[in-house]
Fold Halobacterial output domain-containing protein.
Amino acid sequence: MAERTTNGDDRATVREGGPRVVHSSAADREEGADLSIAVVEAIAEAKGVEPTEMGSTLYDAVDPDALDRLFPGQESDGVTGRVVFELGAHEVTVQSNGDVLVRQTDPR
């Protein structure tokens, strides 16, 4: 099993010995980019596939439009919080600042 962590300019690096983890920072995305797209990309990266090859969709766990409305930008007008959900073998945490953390929960 490999652990993916942020390391400098490289968005994710692989380290042997742990569950796969992907962190997508809001600071690394273009301003105005949809949060739901960033979530899909982070989940696909954690799975090691292209977003179009995931097999399941974000709609299977959460409404992407609602997620985009809940946290509309990197600065959410004082709204703080997070949304945590599972999609397949992954736990996804979306922070109000736009950061996304995806952890593999099932080693399969």
User: Anything to note?
Assistant: The chain has a mean pLDDT of 78. The longest strand covers residues 10-16. The helical segments are 35-47, 64-70. The chain is about 20% helix and 30% strand.
